[in-house]
Amino acid sequence: MSIAYVALGSNLGDKEQNIRRALELMEQHGVRVRKVSPLLTTEPYGVTDQPEFLNGAAEVEWAGDAESLLHTLLAIEQEMGRQRKRHWGERNIDLDLLLFGDQILRSADLVLPHPDMANRSFVLEPLAAIAETVVHPVFHRTIGELWQALQEKQQKKGV
Asked: Parallel, antiparallel, or unpaired: how do β-strands 105-106 and 40-42 relate?
């Protein structure tokens, strides 16, 4: 069994219920949910003309490989009726595979660790709540250190 981390997000409908349902479906599909961060309300990233998001993170166990976990997460999004109308657009559910053990992977379907996670507070804040001491396999810094560095960077910018 591998330990992986999944970002959770929703900005349409009953956001909290959407995330809770996704976690239930993960369990039903063989993804063992070990920890879930507190959920937080965040501003949209990239495309800003859309509702606020509810975001969180989950620590999970998975018996297969990283790509099979990715395809399981995509199947859950589809089962929940996610529609991809525009890049970074509105969605009832978003499940992003952030880390899969200490794997570094670049394939047609998947890049691990998630390529932009260190620049996204809506990813790092909930992830740090459940995985503060986990080491990012590319940056060789803990999630807590990456979260602290991003906060400092945002303070300097006045964000």
From this structure: unpaired
- Answer yes or no: 120 catalytic: no
In percent, the amount of the chain with pLDDT more than 90 equals 77
- Which of 14, 49, 65, 82 is catalytic? The answer is 82
* Residue 96 is a catalytic residue: yes
pLDDT in tens, 17-36: 999 999 999 999 999 999 99
Q: What is the pLDDT of residues 39-84, one digit of tens each?
A: 999 888 777 777 899 999 999 999 999 999 999 999 999 999 877 6
HEC profile of the chain: CEEEEEEEEECCCCHHHHHHHHHHHHHHCCCEEEEECCCEEECCCCCCCCCCEEEEEEEEEECCCHHHHHHHHHHHHHHCCCCCCCCCCCCCCEEEEEEECCCCEECCCCEECCCCHHHCHHHHHHHHHHHCCCECCCCCCEHHHHHHHHHHHHHHHCC
Catalytic residue among 94, 109, 116, 141: 94
Annotated catalytic residue within 20, 21, 96, 141: 96
65 flagged as catalytic: no
